Each structure stands twice: as C-alpha cells, then as structure tokens.
Amino acid sequence: MEALYLHLRCQHRKSVLPSPQVQPRRRPRG
φ and ψ at 27, to 5 degrees? Predict the structure, then answer.
C-alpha cells in the first residue's frame, strides 16, 4: 500500500504548487 501513500503525496504536492491557496487549507500532519 506504499504506492497509494506516494500517489497521495505526489497529488498533494502538485495541488499546492499551482494553487497556493490550497496550502493553508490542506495542511499535512507531520
């Protein structure tokens, strides 16, 4: 299930790059 975690991490990074407004809304937990 590591692929799923990596995919979510990659998606979050891509979402934060083009949309800086999503950073404060979706804050990763340590």
Answer: -105, 120
